[in-house]
Each structure stands twice: as C-alpha cells, then as structure tokens.
Amino acid sequence: MTAWGPNTAEKKYFCIYDNTLIFVFLSFFFFFFLVSWVYFPHFILAQH
Known about the structure:
membrane, transmembrane, transmembrane helix, 1 helix, mainly alpha
C-alpha cells in the first residue's frame, strides 16, 4: 500500500473518519468514567 493512486483522498478520508470514531469513543468512555467516579462514592455513602 503506497501513497500513490487514484484513491489516496479516499484513504485519507477513511483514516480521518476512523480517528474521529476513536476520538468520540474515547471521549464517551472518559465521560462515563468521570461520571461514575463522581457519583459512585455518593451512591456508596448513601447506602450506608
């Protein structure tokens, strides 16, 4: 696989698309981790 070819822009577009999906997935996972890290101690303290 080389950089030359008629579908170079297409490969670049799919690479950007994959990176965007990975970024969205990581940001969603980080948001879920942050919410769980903030709310789980309150939930555990409310149980006791």
